[in-house]
Structure formats: structure tokens, C-alpha cells
Amino acid sequence: MSRQLLINGKLFDGEAVYDDRAVLIDNGRIAEIVAAGHEPQDVSVVDIGGHLLAPGLVDLQVNGGGGVLFNDTPSAEALLTMLAAHRAFGTTACLPTLISDNAEAMQQGINAVAECIAGACPGVIGIHLEGPHLNTDYRGVHDAKQMRPLDDKAKALLCSLESGRTLITLAPETVPVETIRQLSESGVIVFGGHSAATYDETQAALGAGLSGFTHLFNAMTPLTSRAPGMVGAALDDAGSYVGIIADGHHIHPATVRIAIRAKARGKMCLVTDAMPTVGSADNTFMLHGEKITATGGRCITTDGRLAGSDIGMIDAVRNVVRFGGVDLYEALRMASAYPAAALGMDDRLGYLRPGYRADLIELDDDLNVVRSWVQGDRETHT
């Protein structure tokens, strides 16, 4: 892979912004952040033309894209299509997300992710298994027939991906606390969600290794005056991460602002919860035999229930800048550095630093993704 020098851009490295720096990419990694006047000569020069260079975005929850739903086609080929669709929206690394399904589909999804991580699709960094160990009363559009106990066989399946990250969403009140501890100690990242857990039950799960929460506010016990619920526990806990869907539909903009102010800085992660319509000309798809329609950035069932989003990560960034009360650079951290940290991968993703993966995005003044780099591989989008 040729050496590339990215010049004439405004550089946001994940911490600070520079007007006099260039980025040297070599063999898929960031080799050096070069000060003006010290640029090497034996490189391929890419002129950024004054645009913003930022770390590539990291999405913890991607159900589909490019017309593909991961559950329907749990294969490496499907993941290539999904990643290509989301890359145009700034996502350079993600967890393909399998909605509650049978054990065979889960194994196929895990196998597809393992194949991608082995080299077929470098933007895939693990898998998110959202269910099936959820509370049926808070299942949302998840198939009630797939809800089942987390027994030893299920535990072995959840721990079976040997490379990359495995994130699971479960309802902590449906499993013994010791199970959460065992999963966490096995290297699985455990998030709470689709749950009727009380504040105390959630606190016990946090003490056992629960490290985050899936789509905060949605499908979980709310924060009320005398019952803080899972939402209250999530906002009260300084060490855990939360994912938030900033599409303007899953959560009211005022609630987004309140949550960002309440949660410890560095722990709020933007996610898309994206469905197949992202990056596709078709605004409908089928989920569990039910027609889902994308409209105005959201996906809904025929009776008006939310069924995922129709946004990309850069849309989420724009939205939290527009109505979330954060500046652009903090919004970018919420979409890159913080989700990378939630996965324990902020030593290689989420920043533009020497030795890190060369995952970058180039943004114009309207926050459109002009070009992206995934492990140094460059692609033009606009």
C-alpha cells in the first residue's frame, strides 16, 4: 500500500484541532502527524483543500444498510454491502448487529464476522448480539418467540467469537448476576437493554461487569421521582457507557440535551441502530414478516412502532450539534473516541495518532463525507 500524505486540511486528532499539520499514512497505519515544513517527499500527496480531517466514526449498533438486513443474510458478503453503505456516512468501523434470532442464525452471524475480521472486510471489528435474552415486556420489535433463557449452551455461543469484540445486550433481571460476571470475565462486553430492571437490579449488574446500556431511554425502565429505573442507574453511574440514537425520533431533543449534561463526559456514544434503508433507494423492508417503512430518519411498523433508524453516523453527529447542545468536536468524539473506548479499542481507533489504524474521514463545511480511509484504503463519496 502506497504511502500517502494528507495535506492542506484542518486536522482534528480526537483531542485538539490543528491548521498546520499533515497526516502520513503508511501500510494502513498513521505513521506520523507531520508539522508544516517537514513533509516527506517520497509520498503520494492528497490535497484536502481546507476540509476537516477527523477520526473515522465507530458505530456500535448497525442492523443493516444498502438494502441488507444482517438477520436475513448473516454472511460476509452481506457485511461488505452494509459497510459500503455506511462508509459513505463516515462509519469506518462497526459492530454488525444481530437482532434476537435463533441459535443457528447467531452462529452464522458470528462466523460471518470472524471471516470479515480475518481479512474480507476490515471495517468489521466485532459483533453486537442484541438479544435474545431480553424481557418480553420491553422487547420492542424483537420477536417474542425468540426470547429464551441464557443457559450454558447459550453462554458458550455468546463467547465463541475468537477475534474482534463481542457486545451483547441483555436484560439483567432475566439472568443471574453471576452470569454477567462470567460473561464479562470471558471478554464479552455486556450492555443492558430491553429491560424491566429496577435501579437496584441495574446497580447489581454494574457491579458484576455490566459496562454499558443499549439505546438509552428506549425499551428500558424510565427515570421517575421514586423509581430511578435503568435510565437513572445509567445516568448516575460514572463508569459505564451509553448508546444514544440521535435521530430526533427515538429521543426528544430536550431529553438528548439533558442526558448529555447528566452523563459523565466521555461515556456518551452515538449509535445509528440503522436498518437496511440506509444507503438504499428502497424505503421499505420486512422484519419478522412485518413491513417496515423508513420516513423522516426513522423506521416504523404499519401501526407506528419504532423499528430502528434510517440515519448514518454523520447524520447523528449533525443532529447532536443541531439540537444536542454540544460542539462539533465533542459530537465527533461521541461518534469515534468514546465508542472505541467502550470496546476497549481506543488504543487503535478513535484518534489520529502515530501507530493507530488509518481510519479517517474528510468533511466539508456542511459535514458531508467527501472521502474516507479504512486502514489507509481511500474512497471518494462526493
Question: How would a textbook summarize the main sheet?
Answer: 8 strands, parallel
* Highest CATH level, the class of the largest domain: Alpha Beta
The count of strands amounts to 24
Enumerate how many helices there are, as a single number: 10
Shape: globular
CATH superfamily of the largest domain: Metal-dependent hydrolases
Q: Whole-number average pLDDT?
A: 96
Total domain units: 2
Widest β-sheet, arrangement of strands:
8-11-12-13-14-15-16-17
State the share of residues found in helices, binned by percent. Answer: 25-40%
Low-confidence stretches: none
Instruction: Please indicate the percent range of residues in DSSP E strands (runs of 2 or more).
Output: 25-35%
What is the gyration radius calculated from CA atoms?
Answer: 20 Å
The CATH level-2 architecture of the largest domain is identified as Alpha-Beta Barrel
Can you lay out the helices and strands and say which pair or pack?
Layout: E1 4-7, E2 10-12, E3 17-18, E4 21-26, E5 29-35, E6 44-47, E7 52-55, E8 57-62, E9 64-65, E10 68-69, H1 76-87, E11 91-99, H2 103-120, E12 126-130, H3 152-158, E13 165-170, H4 177-185, E14 189-192, H5 199-208, E15 212-213, H6 229-236, E16 241-245, H7 253-262, E17 268-271, E18 284-287, E19 290-295, E20 298-300, E21 306-309, H8 313-323, H9 328-334, H10 337-342, E22 360-363, E23 369-374, E24 377-380
Parallel strand pairs: 1-6, 2-7, 8-11, 11-12, 12-13, 13-14, 14-15, 15-16, 16-17
Antiparallel strand pairs: 1-4, 2-3, 4-5, 7-22, 9-10, 18-19, 19-20, 20-21, 22-23, 23-24
Helix pairs in contact: 1-2, 5-6, 8-9
